[in-house]
Automatic annotation (TrEMBL):
<dbReference type="InterPro" id="IPR014729">
    <property type="entry name" value="Rossmann-like_a/b/a_fold"/>
</dbReference>
<keyword id="KW-1133">Transmembrane helix</keyword>
<dbReference type="GO" id="GO:0005829">
    <property type="term" value="C:cytosol"/>
</dbReference>
<keyword id="KW-0315">Glutamine amidotransferase</keyword>
<keyword id="KW-0547">Nucleotide-binding</keyword>
<dbReference type="InterPro" id="IPR001962">
    <property type="entry name" value="Asn_synthase"/>
</dbReference>
<comment type="pathway">
    <text>Amino-acid biosynthesis.</text>
</comment>
<keyword id="KW-0028">Amino-acid biosynthesis</keyword>
<dbReference type="Pfam" id="PF00733">
    <property type="entry name" value="Asn_synthase"/>
</dbReference>
<keyword id="KW-0061">Asparagine biosynthesis</keyword>
<dbReference type="GO" id="GO:0004066">
    <property type="term" value="F:asparagine synthase (glutamine-hydrolyzing) activity"/>
</dbReference>
<dbReference type="InterPro" id="IPR050795">
    <property type="entry name" value="Asn_Synthetase"/>
</dbReference>
<keyword id="KW-0812">Transmembrane</keyword>
<dbReference type="GO" id="GO:0006529">
    <property type="term" value="P:asparagine biosynthetic process"/>
</dbReference>
<feature type="transmembrane region" description="Helical">
    <location>
        <begin position="340"/>
        <end position="361"/>
    </location>
</feature>
<keyword id="KW-0472">Membrane</keyword>
<dbReference type="InterPro" id="IPR033738">
    <property type="entry name" value="AsnB_N"/>
</dbReference>
């Protein structure tokens, strides 16, 4: 994935301020080594560190609408961008980037377009005609985003806290499923499914469980993520979730955009010598016929990496650090050959949460789903970005 930084309304358009923005954006360069872009308009700055996944030759950011009055910096993937482009035939696009549709959707619909996006994303958009701006984060917070406030009244946004901590008097995680609007003066929720509200007594489906519906939804979720113009692979620990993702990806590979990189699926696994994950991953890879890559590490390797892991995941939570360290070590190895990695973690969490329904704890299920962004898949995302690889859930 990429790194984004935006500073809006800082009452300073000096060369020194521009240099400072570039310096702060450089702190995010591990997220995107392919291109560094900066757009400035009076006292507003939008910076971008790009990891090229879609249209690597011309999709540099920031991105614009046709007359370049709307500018946007985006970290994410928009899975339905081709469908949206069909609805925007009267618009002239500058690139083949999946994220460019955001600028044109804003031009067409104003701020009320976020729920048209099918994907994972965090973006900041500036309308230079009136200097208004919006920022938004995907429904459950797969893509990280932080918001901060400067002493001069400026509003800051960044992919990681380290780009905000020195210049903002206050900053926090941007809540998932929300939009910040300068016109409305704050945050509001754009993602409002019926099940989200605690006030509605029962909103879960009453129809009988149908395994074919679940299977189709799962397959479609994997298929739409096989959208890449760069080499890719799948994490395969041999567990149920990763094995299913690898199987579905392999089955649909030849019909996907990813087929340009060959019909043999690359899978990856890491563990201590003799660990059950290595054995299980190897067995599944042999069954599926993937090109399997197995990495080993020692306890000392993990200890040596902890300081760097903490710097990148930006937390001292012990459980998160423990889960992130092997992923950090593996991402370092994977980056030598693949830019996009597919990992199944959210589906596992959601299926585990469904156990609450068995005991009629619907309120607990809703609570857990609302807090998905707090789980360790977030730290796994950071681990791959620190080595310039993209992780797709």
């Amino acid at each position: 994935m990429c790194g984004i930084l935006a500073v809006l309304g800082c009452i300073d358009n000096s060369q020194a301020k521009r240099s400072r923005i570039i310096e702060l954006s450089r702190r995010l360069r591990h997220r995107g080594p392919d291109w560094s872009g900066l757009h400035s308009h009076e006292d507003c700055y939008l910076a971008h560190e790009r990891l090229a996944i879609i249209d690597p030759t011309s999709g540099d950011q920031p991105l614009y609408n046709q007359d370049k009055t709307v500018v946007v910096t985006v970290n994410g993937e928009i899975y339905n961008h081709k469908i949206l482009r069909e609805k925007l035939k009267s618009h002239q696009f500058w690139t083949g980037s999946d994220c460019e549709v955001i600028a044109h959707l804003y031009e067409e619909h104003g701020e009320e377009f976020i729920d048209m996006l099918d994907g994972m994303f965090a973006f900041v958009l500036l309308d230079t005609r009136d200097k208004s701006f919006i920022a938004a984060r995907d429904a459950i917070g797969v893509i990280p985003l932080y918001i901060g406030w400067g002493v001069d009244g400026s509003v800051w946004f960044a992919s990681e806290m380290k780009a905000l901590s020195d210049d903002c008097e206050q900053f926090m995680a941007f809540p998932p499923g929300h939009i910040y609007s300068s016109k409305q003066g704050g945050l509001r929720r754009w993602y409002n499914p019926p099940w989200y509200s605690e006030l509605v007594p029962s909103t879960l489906p009453s129809t009988p469980y149908d395994p074919l519906v679940l299977r189709n939804a799962f397959e479609q979720a994997v298929i739409k993520r096989l959208m890449t113009d760069v080499p890719f692979g799948v994490l395969l620990s041999g567990g149920l979730d990763s094995s299913l993702v690898a199987s579905v990806a392999l089955h649909h590979l030849e019909k996907s955009e990813a087929a340009q990189w060959g019909s043999q699926l690359h899978t990856f696994c890491i563990g201590l010598k003799g660990s059950p994950d290595l054995k299980a991953g190897r067995e599944v890879a042999n069954y599926l016929g993937t090109r399997h890559h197995e990495f080993h590490f020692t306890v000392q390797d993990g200890i040596d990496a902890i300081e760097e892991v903490i710097y990148h995941i930006e937390t001292y939570d012990v459980t998160t650090i423990r889960a992130s360290t092997p992923m950090f070590l593996m991402s370092r190895k994977i980056k030598s050959g693949s830019a996009t990695i597919y990992q199944c973690y959210l589906s596992l969490l959601i299926c585990i949460k469904i156990c609450f329904l068995k005991y009629n704890l619907e309120h607990k299920l809703k609570q857990k789903l609302r807090n998905l962004s707090n789980y360790s898949f977030y730290s796994l995302y950071y681990c791959y970005n620190m080595h310039k690889a993209s992780l797709s859930y």
